[in-house]
Amino acid sequence: STQKEDGDSVSSWCGWHTDHGSLTGLTCGLFMKNSVEVPCPDSAAGLYIRTRDDRVVKVTFGEDELAYQIGETTEILSRGRLCATPHCVQAPSGANASNVERSTFAMFMQPDWNETLNFPSEIPYHQEVCHLSITKSC
Ligand SMILES: O=C(O)CCC(=O)C(=O)O
Ligand SMILES: [Fe+2]
């Protein structure tokens, strides 16, 4: 993440984390001000992911599309062949950003609650699962 002041940080609205489940389906951000839909007030605002080669990339997709992120459960069940997607959300900043809200619909898919997961020995401490889970903030 960037080292700017909190308000401008890439993770200013939702800290870096990986989702716990198998797969997360997401709609794109919907911005509202005083209960009225508004265009995104800051093109830098929104969802960011960290790629396997350690680049931070802004995720863009349309309102008639869905994005899917791999969660920690899939990383465990695939024995590390698939990696959980580290992600965060940047708040809008600038003149038009005050009192703006952002909504998305997130569908978290996961095994039954009582399903026992065996953490594979091949990935005893995988970096996404260990480092980022600790800092999960939403
Ligand atoms: O708001 C988003 O686009 C992502 C939300 C998120 O990461 C979560 O709910 O786990
Ligand atoms: Fe998430």
UniProtKB/TrEMBL annotation:
InterPro entries listed in its UniProt record: IPNS-like_sf, Oxoglu/Fe-dep_dioxygenase_dom
Top-level taxonomic group: Eukaryota
Record-annotated Fe2OG dioxygenase domain positions: 1-111
Gene3D superfamilies, alphabetized: B-lactam Antibiotic, Isopenicillin N Synthase, Chain
Protein name: Fe2OG dioxygenase domain-containing protein
Organism: Aegilops tauschii subsp. strangulata
Lineage: Eukaryota, Viridiplantae, Streptophyta, Embryophyta, Tracheophyta
